[in-house]
Amino acid sequence: MRLRNDPQAYDKLEASQNFIKDPKEFKGKWHEFFKNQNPIYMEIGSGKGRFITTLAQQNPDINYIALEKFPTVLIKLIRKIPEGGLPNLAVISWDAQLLEEIFAPGEIDRIYLNFSDPWPKKRHAKRRLTSLPFLQLYEKVLKDGSIIEFKTDNRGFFDYSLEEFKASHFTLEHATYDLYNSPLLEGNVATEYEEKFHGIGTPINKLVARLHKPTENKEDA
Ligand SMILES: C[S@@+](CC[C@H](N)C(=O)[O-])C[C@H]1O[C@@H](n2cnc3c(N)ncnc32)[C@H](O)[C@@H]1O
Predict the structure, then answer these.
(1) pLDDT digit string (tens) for 52-106?
(2) Local structure of 173: helix, strand or coil
(3) Residues having CB within 6 Å of any atom of ligand 1
(4) Strands of 40-44's sheet, edge to edge?
(5) How far is the CA of 36 from the centre of ligand 1 (A)?
(6) What is the topology classification, in CATH, of domain 114-221?
(7) For residue 129, how far is its CA from the centre of ligand 1 (angstroms)?
(8) Which of 12, 51, 70, 170 has a CA that sits 20 to 30 A from residue 4's CA?
(9) What pairing do the DSSP bridges indicate for beta strands 205-211 and 170-176?
(10) Secondary structure letter of residue 19 according to DSSP
(11) Per-domain residue ranges for the chain?
(12) Is 178 a catalytic residue?
């Protein structure tokens, strides 16, 4: 259900102290928002939010940003936040294509992409969150040496993504076609989609890639 079907979606979100109404205000100032210098990890396309709300509770010394295009979905995320809020979590309704409007160069320390939409039709390839133009966009807002973690149930999309990462300034550190039979499973937090697909026996793919900015871009880091 999109916002047009639920005009009160924004009102419900605004009632949460973790929801950031105007994220542009904090461009270059996210550490001021969190009131500390801890690293900032972001999930893009956080959906109903089990992953990011779990991590934020497990790791109080890391700041988390949940970025999701559709505000209606975020209502479900907000409901997972314990009473009293989570001081290390910011929830944003935003389109990943516009990341540079809300983050300064090198402001983010890690990106998680979990079960991103595969957009199987070729004419929609530009919308895939692991396409090279998106990886180049992430490169701008990430610090040099930062990590991207990507999980998906879709083998074709995973193979496509491996090639896009290889063509980028990210170096693959780990990749598996079967997360649940891999050492990468240690510490894994399952998302809503992951639980569903793993539950019906679909192997889960995961990659971990590290950014190596070319020397001329390092001053951004
Ligand atoms: C298939 S769902 C996965 C949700 C969650 N990560 C999970 O694993 O359960 C993909 C999510 O990404 C969001 N999304 C897709 N494109 C986006 C974009 N350009 N910017 C922000 N969010 C986006 C969708 O709205 C959707 O909630």
Answers:
(1) 999 999 999 999 999 999 999 999 999 999 988 899 999 999 999 999 999 999 9
(2) strand
(3) 44-47, 67-70, 73, 95-97, 114-117, 191-194
(4) 89-93, 63-68, 40-44, 108-114, 142-152, 205-211, 170-176
(5) 28
(6) Rossmann fold (3.40.50)
(7) 9
(8) 51
(9) antiparallel
(10) B
(11) 1-104, 114-221
(12) no
Q: How many CA atoms lie within 13 A of 210 on its CB side?
A: 5
Q: Letter for the amino acid at 161?
A: S
Q: Tell me if domain 1-104 and domain 114-221 are identical in fold.
A: yes
Nearest to 193 by CA among 43, 47, 2, 41: 47
Out of 6, 109, 117, 220, the active site residue is: 117
Which of 69, 72, 189, 193 for a ligand 1 pocket mutation test, highest count of atoms within 8 Å of Cβ?
69
Provide the 3-class DSSP secondary structure of residue 217: helix
CB atoms within 10 A of CB 208: 17
The residue written with tokens 């907000």 in the block is 78
The 10s digit of each residue's pLDDT in 122-160 is: 999 999 999 999 999 999 999 999 999 999 999 999 999
CATH number of 1-104: 3.40.50.150
